[in-house]
User: What shape does this take?
Amino acid sequence: MDENLAPTAEQIIEQGNVVYKRPDALLDTWTHYCPGCTHGIIHRLIAEAIDELGLREKAILVAPVGCSVLMYYYFNVDAVEAAHGRAPAMATGLKRTQPDKVVFTYQGDGDLASIGAAEILHAANRGERITVFFVNNAVYGMTSGQMAPTTLPGMVTTSSPTGRDVKEHGYPMRMAEIIAGLPGACYVVRRSVHDARTIRQAKKAVITAFKTQLAGLGLSMVEFLSSCPTNWHMSPPDAMAWIRDTMMPYYPLGDFKVAEEVKNW
Amino acid sequence: MARGTVVIEVDRCKGCELCTTICPQGVLHTTHDRFNARGYRPAQLIDPTGKCTGCALCALICPDVCLTVYRYDPRR
Amino acid sequence: MAKELWKGNEAIAEAAIRGGVEAFFGYPITPQTELLEYMAARMPALGRAFLQAESEVASINMVYGAACGGARAMTSSSSPGISLMQEGLSYIAGSEAPAVLVDVMRGGPGLGNIQPSQSDYFQMTRSAGHGDYHPIVLAPSTIQEAIDLMYEAFPLAEKYRTIVILAADGSLGQMMEPAEMPPMRPPLAEAERAAWAVRGAAGRDKRLITSLFLKEEELEALNQHLQAKLRRIEATERRWEEVATADAEFLLVAFGTVGRTCKSVMREARQQGLKVGLYRPISLWPFPWPRLRELARQARGMLVVEMNAGQMLEDVQLAVEGRCPVQFYGRTGGVIPLPDEILAALYDFVSAQRDANAPAGPTSGG
Assistant: This one.
C-alpha cells in the first residue's frame, strides 16, 4: 500500500485486522433495551469474558425479573428464568447439583436489593460458588421508574414524587459493602460503565469474578453503576455524566472484598 | 499512523449517541436525513480524510454491539 | 426386607432417598422438622446435596434451580411454609420442571398450632400457586403407604414433568409403625438426564427453561398444553381404596389418617348391623370421582370426615352431583376426631336419613 495515499475504508477492511466485533457468546439479535441503556455494555463485557475464558459450554445463566428479564434470548448459553429476587437461590440449587458448571446470576436493584435481599445475603454467607452481576441504576426500570433501595436521597421517582426522604424511606443501600462483610464472599467489587476507563476496569472485574468461581473460592459479585436514561429523563450521554457526578460520590468504586488468593493473581 | 474504519449495523443502532460523543476524531455522527428499520436515527461514519484510527472506543461504549472496528497499521 | 419400626417423617425421608432424591433443600417447621434433620445426616453421607435454606421461599427456588438442571430435587414443609412456596410452585408448574414436595399439615389458618390437620387440601389440589394447573397430590394413611407413595414420587413427577405432593399430616409425621423399606434405586447416569435439562450447552445449542411468555398466543398455547397433560394424568393416575362398598347403604369418605380412623368406625358400625362402606381417596388430585359417582347411585348417604371445615367435601359433592345426600363431620384447630364421635355423627346422619325417608302419615311416632 502506498503510504502517501490514505487507504480507503474498503482497503482497511480487506487488509486490516478486526479490532472489535461482536463476541460469540452474544447472539446476533436486536435487544429490547432503551437507547443508551448500559445493560447492553454489561452484557457485552460478560459475553466477552465467557468467550475469553472458554466458558460457553459450562455456563448457566440465571436471569432475573426486571428490564433484563429477556436477556436469555441474547446470550448463547443455557439459561433459566428465576422469580423476582430468587436468582441466588436457583443458582444455589444448580451449582450444588452441578458443581462443575459456571453458574451466574444477573440482577437489578429491585431483584437483588429489595425482594431478593435475603437470597443474596444467605448465598453470600454460605459462600455459594456462584457469580453475581448486580446492575445498579438507582431506580426500577421495567416497571417504569419507581424508587429502589438504591435510589439516592432527594431523587424524584414515580413512587417518591417529592423525592426520596431518608426519614421515611431509609438511606440507599450500598450492597457491595454489605455483601463484602460476609466471610463467604470472596470477591466483591463496584465498577462503573460510564466511560472508556471504567468500562475497561469493569471488564477486568468480570473476568476475575469468573476466575474466582473456577477456583471455587466463594461468592463473587460485581456491582455495576449503570444508567437508565428513560427513567432518569436524560439523554444517554447526560445519563453517563450523571453516574459520574451524582452516583459515584454515594457509591464509590472499589474493591470491597478480595480473597487472599486473588490478590496474588 | 494506524488507519481505521468501522462498519455499523444500521438496523441495530438506536441512535443513543454514546459513540458519537466518545469518538476522539469526531467522525461519527447521527444521521438527520433518514431512519433505520426501527425508526431510530442511526450513527454513521463520515470520514473523508481518513481520521479514524481504529481506536475502538465507539465499540467499547456501544450498548448494542453495532460496530465492527478494523485497523490497518502500515508500519507493520 | 424385614419390617422395622419407623417414625413417619423419617420413613418418608428414607423412602425418598431410596427413591432416588439427589437434592434436598428445606427449612425447619414443626411437625416435619425430623424429615429435614434425617436428610441432613443421610444425604451428605451418600454424597448427595443437602442444604438448610434461609426460608421456605429459598427452599422451593433451590428445588426449582436443581430441577431445571435435571436433578431429582425435593423439599418438605408444613402448612405455613407451603403457603410461602406457592410462588415457586407456580413457576415450577409453568416451566414443567419435575419436583417433589411433602406437606405435613398442621392447624391453621395463620400460625395456627403444631397439631395435625387436613386444611391444606384446597391449597394443594386447587393449584398450589397462581395460574391454571394442579399438582398430583397423594395422601397416605399409614407409614407403609407413605413409603410406597414416596418411592414412586420421582418417576411419577418425571413421567409428566409435574409436581408431586405427598400430603401427610402431623400425626402421620410423628407416629411410629413397623414398615418395610424398598431397595435403593441406582443413581441417574448423565445419559439418562432429561433432554430439556439445563446442564451447560456442550456440543449443542443452548437450552432455556422459563415460565415467561409475553405474547398471549404463546401463553395460551402453553396453558392448553398443560391442560392436555392434566387430562392425561386424570385418565391414568386416579387412586383410591374402597372397603365393604359392594352392599354399602352408607359410605364414609375420608383421606389420610382420618381415612384410617374411619376404617375402625366402619368395622364397628358393621358389627352393630349398619351397612357402611369406606371410600378413601389416595390421589386427592386427580380426585377419583367416577367410582364415587357410581357408588352414589346405590348409597343412601355419604358422610365426609375431615380435619378441616369441609374441603374434600366439595369434591365429593361435585362427584355425587346430588345423587345422594352428602353430610360433613369435621374438626378444626388441630383436633383429631376419634372413632366414637365419628360413629355418633354417622348414626345421627343415618337416623336423619331414615326419618326423612319415613312414609308420611298419622301413625308415624314422635
